[in-house]
Amino acid sequence: MKNRTAYTLVEIIVVIALLGIIIAMTIPHTNYFKAIRESLEIKELKRDILFTRNKAIIDSKIYRIKFIEDDNSYTISTGSASESITIKTKHFEHGIKLNTKEGSKTFIFNSNGTTTDSGTIYFLDRLGNQHKLSITPVSCKVNIEKEIQPIKK
Known about the structure:
alpha+beta; about 30% strand; four-stranded antiparallel β-sheet; minor pseudopilin epsh fold
């Protein structure tokens, strides 16, 4: 009779238990990484608005940042409205959903860095929480606030 080596039932159960523990530990981290990507996307949006303002000051030109709800994106451009040069187009890919309430909204930065009008953009995160992005007209300060949802009774 030949010697056959095989795994015992105890060894198989231990391996399956260890695999189950490892898988159970990695599942919560996937949501964690989604939240990080979403947060980075919001920070990139704020940086791009400040970049647009700074670029208008440095180049002494008019720069625009246009939010397009249908495309869930924003575009940074310069030049006249008829001969616009696109600098950057960013599509939100990690849970952010624009809610401009107007279809699209454009902020125009003058050569001195001020915007022609203040405005507010609303967007939803992946959990459905509403955030408000507002730009003050004179200082061009960018504020992003998470709006508190009323408690349902």
